[in-house]
């Protein structure tokens, strides 16, 4: 027997703003990264890491790109944090927040060239590697997608979120698998190419979540949630009228009468179940 879906909360204006900021920042990251391939073509995209663009003449673009990706991930987490209702979802949010911190660290400290010997790393290079090692975003995306899919408001988006997160996860595994065991990078090593595609794949999940937040906001507006004070008072008046009529007839209100009166002031919201007018906005 399938588990019942967990109730969800209405989308707030702050969450809608966070979702939009996540999408815009993610698109900015993608544009900057793609632009760097044209501005700094001396870095072979097949085996040189994207971090090395910060060492070129337009290094500021890579710094801004890392900051944009950090903002995008953090804003996505803020947009859905109130809708996550399971421990696995909370773990996913923490992973996403750590990844955002990692990208900020990578932006603050420039990397060493990939050809640098391990014993010759600078302090800045080691800090950059530390920041990059915090990025397990695809794992967080999978956990958050599963948690959101357990709620009634996000159930319809569970499959596209899981697909987008799974693609990013598989690319992350591919990136790890293509790392040379001897630590020597050069032509014929495709870690850099897979790393680029993996980072760009984050935008698929970010877009799905951002559109999901805006879609739910649109549904709520069409459904009329939350109820206005006038609607709530009308529901309470209808309920009171039913109980008063029963009392005036000399009978005591029973459980069935109470249920009938509640039905009189219940509003049906398309796609959002039933809302009791006598309890709404309290």
The count of strands amounts to: 2
Whole-number mean pLDDT: 82
Main beta sheet, described? 2 strands, antiparallel
Shape, principal axes of CA atoms: elongated
How many domains comprise the coordinates? 2
Rg over CA atoms, rounded to whole Å, is 26 Å
Give the amount of beta strand, in percent. Answer: under 5%
Helix content: 55-70%
The parts where pLDDT drops under 50 for at least 5 residues are 220-233, 264-282
Ends: how far apart?
A: 34 Å
State the helix count: 9
Q: What sequence of helices (H) and strands (E) makes up the elements?
A: HHHHHHHHHEE
Helix vs. strand class: mainly alpha
* Main β-sheet, spatial strand arrangement: 1-2
Report a brief summary of the structure.
The protein is mainly α. The chain has helices spanning about 15-40, 60-80, 85-110, 125-130, 135-150, 160-175, 190-225, 230-250, 255-265, and strands at about 265-270, 275.
Describe the structure.
Strand 1 (about 265-270) and strand 2 (about 275) form a beta hairpin. The chain is elongated. It has helices spanning about 15-40, 60-80, 85-110, 125-130, 135-150, 160-175, 190-225, 230-250, 255-265; strands at about 265-270, 275. Helix 3 runs antiparallel to helix 4. It is built from nine helices and two strands; from the N terminus they run H-H-H-H-H-H-H-H-H-E-E.
Entry keywords:
mainly alpha, two-stranded antiparallel sheet, 282 residues, single chain, 2 domains
Give the helix/strand layout:
Blueprint: H1 13-39, H2 59-80, H3 87-108, H4 123-132, H5 137-148, H6 158-177, H7 191-223, H8 229-248, H9 255-264, E1 266-269, E2 273-276
Antiparallel strand pairs: 1-2
